[in-house]
Design goal:
Elements (H helix, E strand, L loop, with lengths): L3 E6 L2 E6 L4 H8 L22 E4 L6 E2 L10 E3 L3 H16 L8 H5 L6 H9 L3 H8 L8 H5 L11 H9 L24 H7 L19 H8 L14 H8 L17 E2 L4 E3 L9 H8 L7 E3 L6 E3 L6 H4 L4 H7 L5 E3 L5
Parallel strand pairs: 1-5
Antiparallel strand pairs: 1-2, 3-4, 3-5, 6-7, 7-10, 8-9
Helix pairs in contact: 4-5, 4-9, 5-7, 7-9, 11-13
The chain binds iron/sulfur cluster (2 copies).
């Protein structure tokens, strides 16, 4: 039997070893089929359905990650029908998603300033870099502060004071990551209980006033910056859901289900799990299983409430003793991230 098969994708012929998938063949051709729940070197367990393609002669589209390449097969990967199916798959995932890619303060900013990142740079002792960002501010009157979630606890972060403080420092040009823009999902209004969970990231001190009544000292600026609850997403720059959502112009609210509550689990080694961002792709479950984690991860719940969890409701640290970092690396969204992935 011939050890290779030849198929056509979007009119281009490609020869691959027998047993390859259509996705393998497309990658060999350099055709970028989106895939979220498939990771090279792991078994395909299709769930996200964003890698769908049209097989000539068939009515239904198929997930390319789990479709074997058969000699003579003809595939279309870029038709309007295929794009619409991928968009729908993304919209279904987004309908059950809870997270802000971009924080409310940045969304409100007329120049899309990445305000949480600027604040972290002040807090982390990089005021010159923060200053290069702050000088983009057009002084719109403080739309940023009006949307700051911290107001639900006590008072908004004093973003305008922080911008004034930072803008006076250094002369560098703005860095590439100074602004956000683009696709974003939105959490919307949050409950007092959810604010308690967001506050894990923030210093609970009262809003800091400049002692001289005018401008922050370095120390005052750092203290005020520590009040930020960090409600932007740690994965915003490498999240596949965000990337493909933008690429296929997916609507974030088309299939919006009743909103789940914001929650966050923390692992002592710095892994953070946010169930609201999990698309139930199963990659982390598979990685933990392959690494023979004693407990590992599993799917818990039913129907739309299925999420990844540790068996017997044990803490994340018990489930992931060896491969916490590998799971964060593989996670296609911001559901599993490492705290050290900070700006
Ligand atoms: S996980 Fe992705 S889509 Fe969700 S908030 Fe983060 S960046 Fe946005
Ligand atoms: S936590 Fe991430 S890797 Fe694990 S199932 Fe959810 S989306 Fe997939």
């Amino acid at each position: 039997m011939n050890e290779t098969v030849t198929i056509h994708i979007d009119g281009q012929a490609v020869t691959v070893p027998r047993g390859s998938t259509v996705l393998d063949a497309a990658r060999k051709l350099g055709i970028a089929i989106p895939a979220m729940c498939f990771l090279e070197g792991h078994t395909a367990e299709p769930s996200c359905m964003v890698c769908q393609v049209k097989v000539d002669g068939e009515d239904r589209l198929r997930p390319s990650c789990a479709t074997a390449a058969v000699d003579g097969m003809r595939i279309e990967s870029e038709t309007a029908e295929v794009h619409a199916a991928r968009r729908t798959a993304l919209e279904l995932l987004l309908g059950d998603h809870l997270g802000d890619c971009v924080a409310p303060c940045s969304v409100a900013c007329p120049v899309d300033l990445n305000i949480p990142l600027m604040i972290r740079r002040i807090r982390g002792g990089q005021p010159a870099l923060a200053g290069a960002m702050a000088r983009l501010c057009r002084d719109c009157g403080g739309r940023c502060e009006k949307t700051c979630r911290r107001a639900a606890r006590d008072r908004p972060v004093a973003i305008r004071n922080l911008i004034r403080y930072a803008a006076d420092i250094g002369e560098e040009p703005p860095p590439d990551d100074a602004t956000t823009g683009g696709f974003s999902t939105h959490v919307g209004r949050v409950s007092p209980e959810e604010i308690d969970r967001y506050m894990v990231e923030a210093n609970s001190i009262q809003r800091v006033k400049p002692a001289d009544g005018a401008a922050y000292t370095d120390e005052e600026a750092r203290r005020e910056a520590s009040r930020c609850m960090r409600c932007d997403c740690r994965a915003a720059d490498d999240c596949k859901l965000r990337e493909y959502g933008a690429l296929y112009k997916a609507h974030t609210r088309k299939y919006k289900s009743s909103r789940r509550a914001f929650s966050q689990n923390r692992h002592p080694q710095g892994l953070i799990y946010e169930p609201g961002k999990c698309i139930v792709c199963g990659l982390c479950v598979q990685i933990a299983r392959e690494a023979a984690e004693p407990l590992g991860l599993t799917f818990v719940g039913r129907g739309f409430n299925v999420r990844v969890g540790v068996p017997f409701d044990r803490p994340l640290a018990d489930g992931l003793r060896k491969v916490a970092g590998a799971c964060a690396e593989a996670c296609p969204t911001g559901a599993l991230v490492l705290e050290e992935d900070e700006a």
